[in-house]
């Protein structure tokens, strides 16, 4: 019996075991990792066939495809971890097209020496998030890099979803007069991650808002199929999102600062850390642009959902060839909300 | 004018420029990188819409989805680089289901300080490979990690493709009596990468075989729609592939060593490096399992294609409840071709 066979005979050692280079080398150790951890946790017939690709039936129509690499540090943060984040983030990018998520593919790049216990926790978190979102993780890939050539684990999640007939949501479709609706308070994710990174203790525990928004979106699209544009304010925060939409649609946006919900604890932490909540990442919020006459109906649907309880109309799309995002401040003044400047929080997602 | 704006006014500096953390932070620098490099190079209307997802029409039927992370070191090697490899690898995983590749998604994790010139070369290589394979890179993501937390660049490529009606290729479908066909010589990729890594100079230049096999596969599937199983021998080499299929199909495989093509220069390098070509990675080869009566026809189609010129029938599927891969050696003996043992070449793809 070879050393390798002996090592594997007892199953993966989640207590003391670590990822080694051979877990990524295409041999028996990789097969064991796939079988004992990934197949068992993600449990679906696509994965169980052990092909290098998953095959599924689709009806004729429009699909969306989206991919995101997750490099967040730390891997575990208040309110979530890189595993559920990788599922939520990709589910949300599918949902932002008004689409229903169907299938996910997961590629992991793991650093040699990474504890199997942490990998197990992350995989369990992914599995739970995928189950809750009604999506199957149907195919995957695992690579291992030498110690010092990575940082624990990076996860790239790619998803496909199906767009309902009649829905046409895209960044260039915002029009002057459109209402700008935000699904809830901003800054929670970024501040929660930063508080953990900097080992800050606040009186109120700050939790990431990380969540899958597909169900909220399904209800929104059902009520108002003609939503013009929709996006989730992740890296770069609300400010980046609004500037991107203004740029793509060739419009300006007039914001009302008082209408933008920010939790008091987040506001306090931002002041302490010298951050503007407008630029801080969120992982469970969305912004929708719709015709003014649809705004009340859409807002009511959002507020009726647990993930849109604090939804608010935060502004209006205006004609502006300079494509500026401008904000009426609480003090009655105006300021330009520019793109994020050079220095921001790295590795927030 | 801020420093950041001044820096960006002149466009990306491919001569001296390097990736900085702000290229991944969701702000203006990231937008510039996407616009000037990715959109220009990958040039397609999906990407140009700048949504966080790509939307496309599909007909009713079966799709495949596959994902692979590429962490190869060195990034540039004889016969290719991480860019074209990331396209070929994913195109091939789609093709191995007999499917026609349609769309790719690309997620990059780049280390702070990575030269923009290298990124440009890699992106150009990806664009050329995608164009040659007739696939569009329709969506993507860029993350930047701090110096020392990555290794230059990691690329995860995910693809979708469409399976022709009547084609049902899967790892569990090999049957006793099936012919085992290999499309060409083995070991080229692994040996080429290793020669560069170890700075070895051989008399004959060793080149990676890295190539997209979709066109070869299209002809094979057209000639013999009933191919049972197909896979490309990447990490773990031919030995891993044969063991995987034997395992999944519940069969044994009888190989004929003399029939397996190995280029003399590769054989020589393997002897020098102490490698067995059976375990060395390939990136432009495939193995097909088909009914004995289809074998001659399929082999003829493979040999008529430039990427299958040296195709050979290397063995036969046999009944074996132990699922062993056995090889008749050139000297008339027999040996078990086991799974890859623990130590193999890390980061070969």
Automatic annotation (TrEMBL), chains A, B:
Q: What residue stretches are annotated with the PurM-like C-terminal domain?
A: 175-326
Domain (PurM-like N-terminal) ranges: 51-163
Entry-linked InterPro entries: HypE (IPR011854), PurM-like_C_dom (IPR010918), PurM-like_C_sf (IPR036676), PurM-like_N (IPR016188), PurM-like_N_sf (IPR036921)
Pfam families tied to this protein: AIRS, AIRS_C
Instruction: Give an example GO biological process.
Output: protein maturation
What the entry lists under CDD domains is as follows: HypE
Q: Which family does it belong to?
A: Belongs to the HypE family.
Q: What is this protein called?
A: Carbamoyl phosphate phosphatase, hydrogenase 3 maturation protein
Which species expresses this protein natively?
A: Candidatus Defluviicoccus seviourii
């Amino acid at each position: 019996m070879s050393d390798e066979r002996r090592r594997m005979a007892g199953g993966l050692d989640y207590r003391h075991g670590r990822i080694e280079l051979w877990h990524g080398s295409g041999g028996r150790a990789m097969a064991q990792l796939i079988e004992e951890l990934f197949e068992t946790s993600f449990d679906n017939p696509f994965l169980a066939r052990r092909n290098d690709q998953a095959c599924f039936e689709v009806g004729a129509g429009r699909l969306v495809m989206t991919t995101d690499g997750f490099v967040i540090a730390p891997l575990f943060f208040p309110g979530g971890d890189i595993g559920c984040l990788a599922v939520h983030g990709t589910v949300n990018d599918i949902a932002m097209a008004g689409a229903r998520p169907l299938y996910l593919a997961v590629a992991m790049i793991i650093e040699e020496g990474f504890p199997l216990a942490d990998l197990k926790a992350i995989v369990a978190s992914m599995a739970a998030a995928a189950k809750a979102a009604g999506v199957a993780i149907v195919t995957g890939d695992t690579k291992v890099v030498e110690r010092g050539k990575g940082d624990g684990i990076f996860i790239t999640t790619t998803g496909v979803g199906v767009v309902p007939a009649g829905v046409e949501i895209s960044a260039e479709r915002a029009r002057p007069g459109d209402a700008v609706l935000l699904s809830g308070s901003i800054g929670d994710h970024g501040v929660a991650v930063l508080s953990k990174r900097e080992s800050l203790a606040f009186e109120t525990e700050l939790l990431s808002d990380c969540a899958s928004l597909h169900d909220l979106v399904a209800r929104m699209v059902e009520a108002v199929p003609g939503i013009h544009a929709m996006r989730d304010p992740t890296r770069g925060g609300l400010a980046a999102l609004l500037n991107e939409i203004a740029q793509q649609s060739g419009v300006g946006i007039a914001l009302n600062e008082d209408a933008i919900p920010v939790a008091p604890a987040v506001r306090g932490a931002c002041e302490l850390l010298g951050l503007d909540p407008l630029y801080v990442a969120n992982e469970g919020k969305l912004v929708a642009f719709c015709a003014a006459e649809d705004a009340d109906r859409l807002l009511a649907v959002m507020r009726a959902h647990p993930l849109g309880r604090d939804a608010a109309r935060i502004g209006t799309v205006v004609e502006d060839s300079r494509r500026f995002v401008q904000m009426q401040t609480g003090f009655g003044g105006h300021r330009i909300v520019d793109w994020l400047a050079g220095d921001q929080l790295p590795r927030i997602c």
